[in-house]
Amino acid sequence: MKFMGIWPNERGISYASSYIVLFPMGFMFLFITLPQTTNLYFISDDFELIVENLSVANITITIALLKTATFWSNGKTMKELILRMENDRREAKVQENVRRMMRIADISRRITAGSIIMCNFIVFTYVTLRTLLLPYTGRDLYYHAYFPYNTSIFPNFELTLIGQITAALYAANSYTAVDTFMTMLVLHVCEQFSCLRKKFDKLCCESNNNFRIDLARIVEKYDMLNRYAETIEDRFNGMLLIQMLGCTVQLCVQSYQAISTLVDDDQGLLIVRLFFFAIYTTYVMLHIYLYCYVGQKLFSEGTKMAYAAYDCKWYNLSPNEARYLTIIMCRAQISSHITAGKFCSFNHQLFGNILKTSMGYLSVLYAMKTKDED
User: Fold this and answer.
1) CA dist., res. 322 & res. 220, Å (int)
2) In angstroms, what is the C-alpha Rg of the chain?
3) I want to staple 163 with a disulfide (CB 3.0 to 4.6 A). Which of 31, 40, 126, 175 is the partner?
């Protein structure tokens, strides 16, 4: 994130780090998003070229560009959330809670490392194969686009290829970094909810003479965690809506290309195209599942606060003190969640619906394509 200029830090006119983000955004916009979007006008009569334009890079790079801009513009908010995470770590005095937080940090680190390796592998493999095919395809750009200059002559061709490769690497890493960073933030909130539930065990014991003080601390912490989750939701639900819509269109055009390859008479590049379709679809679906998983976990951990209040030894309390717990139980029924533009919540049910819809769409496309070929 520091390499791409989107790591949450101090920003101002005097900070050079404030302007690093202009380089990845400039490369993505000038070498892929703008040229490929402009090229749609010139290929508007050819449906196959439009599908290729949208499926190869245009939608993905545009989503990465918007995510980069959104995350960078919310740098101050992200820094506040990171400071809260650091405060939670310093406040953790019980060794079990420390181990829980370190486990979440280790899981987040593995998710990030795996996603970064996967996205760079996709870019590297695509560029390598396209480079090996240059003797057969001629001076053909990696991503077909319109440029206001002749891209077939030296050094325009070479410089344009370098710009496209740089833009693809920036896009892949920024796309992945934002998703994995948000996953880390939400997993931290979930783990804090889990640690907070443990405090109910000691709250209602007969030897506790500071019930109201301890309960006030629990409520204050619970309210802070809900505000933490709501901040993530408010700042990024629009970005997630655009990502979901873009991924939907991307999967549709990718599926069309894969099916076209299956029924095409020319099977020379069948394995290569299906390979890229498989790994790209897996990559996109894994990122969607990340959001669905953490969204489901956030909702579940929040609602479990009600069960924790009910399962504690409330019968040791006075009627007035036990009444306080019912308020917590009612509040916990309205748990925090992550949404795509307030339209739908990320959970396991949403991911299941996406899988069923995708499989149904694939079967319909294949039937239509084979019927047209016949």
Assistant:
1) 18
2) 25
3) 31
Q: Using CA atoms, how far apart are residues 59 and 249, in angstroms rounded to an integer?
A: 8
Contacts of 160 (CB under 8 A, 6+ apart): 31, 141, 147, 151
Asked if 264 contacts 284 with a C-beta cutoff of 8 angstroms, the reply is no
- Cβ–Cβ < 8 Å for 242, 71: no
pLDDT tens-place string over residues 72-126: 888 888 888 888 888 888 887 777 778 888 888 898 899 989 999 988 888 888 8
For the chain, give the number of residues: 374
Distance CA 17, CA 4 (A): 10
Task: Give the DSSP per-residue string, 257-302.
Answer: HHHHHHH-S--TTHHHHHHHHHHHHHHHHHHHHHHHHHHHHHHHHH
Among the listed residues 105, 281, 286, the one whose alpha carbon sits nearest the alpha carbon of residue 179? 286
pTM over 0.70: yes
Question: Which residue carries 């344009």 as its tokens?
Answer: 160
Mapping DSSP to helix (H, G, I), strand (E, B) and coil, where does residue 339 land? Answer: strand
CB 233 within 8 A of CB 337: yes
Beta bridge partners of 223: none
- Amino acid making up residue 78: M
CA atoms within 13 A on the CB side of 176: 25
Beta bridge mates, 345: 339
